[in-house]
Amino acid sequence: MSRSVLVTGGNRGIGLAVARELAEAGDNVAVTHRSGEPPEDLFGVRCDITDTAQVDAAFKEVEEHQGPVEVLVANAGMNKDQLLALMSEDDFSSVLDTNLTGSFRVAKRAVRGMMRKRSGRIVLISSVVGLLGSGGQANYAASKAGLVGFARSLARELGSRDITVNVVAPGFITTDMTDALPEDRQNEIKKNVPLGRFGAPEDIARTVGFLAGPGGAYITGAVIPVDGGLGMGH
User: Fold this and answer.
1) Where's the Ketoreductase domain (predicted)?
2) Comparing C-alpha atoms, which of 105, 115, 126, 116 is closest to residue 32?
């Protein structure tokens, strides 16, 4: 049977690839977007995940359209890279508010229906940076590392209700952000990746699809790197 799926930040990049992967598997997929327009082939709701009222309104709209959310993929995120000595408090707190607290907001709202149904899947999109660290990204790394502790705590808290909570940690993925990097910087990054290349959004999507599908039924509290080996051992 088709499930009700919500992917935050699902109008482009990794989020869009995840949304389409799950839709192709037969699920009813909705995506949130803060700006721009949703893809024509997916149900979109405008939502800024830093605003609890907007999160609640988005969930209500999705619930009216396709029923209570049974699979949540918390993908929406942002970065404001800066060296610590130059980083403002807003640079730090706003990234955590979006990436970490935003995931808290959507997960808290999603588990209401999941707990009633006694089943559900939650996948949080972290980053290899949250495991390795990265100069100039203390705020981003802290927010993405925080998702690991958050997910594992939820996995223990919700496991008795047959709700799984897992983390996918992408490495360097071909997106508009990586395309904008100078060629010499791209080559420098690739030298540190054992597979010698960037991944594709579809690589992340297939992993999320596995965790959200039958194959992931007995996996919870896991952190799965999809990074070409970059974060190996972390």
Assistant:
1) 3-176
2) 105
pLDDT in tens, 166-218: 999 999 999 877 887 889 989 999 999 999 999 999 999 999 999 999 999 99
User: Is 218 marked active-site?
Assistant: no
What are the domain boundaries of the chain? 4-174+201-226
Residue 234 pLDDT exceeds 80: no
Q: Is the dihedral of CA 190, 193, 197, 203 positive or negative?
A: negative
Q: Which CATH number fits domain 4-174+201-226: 3.40.50.720, 3.30.530.20, 3.40.50.300, 3.30.565.10?
A: 3.40.50.720
pTM of the model: 0.95
Q: Could you tell me how many helices (H) and strands (E) the chain has, helices first?
A: 9, 7
User: Tokens 């597979």 map to which residue?
Assistant: 195
Q: What is the mean pLDDT of residues 130-152?
A: 97
Query: Among residues 92, 140, 150, 172, which one is catalytic?
Result: 140
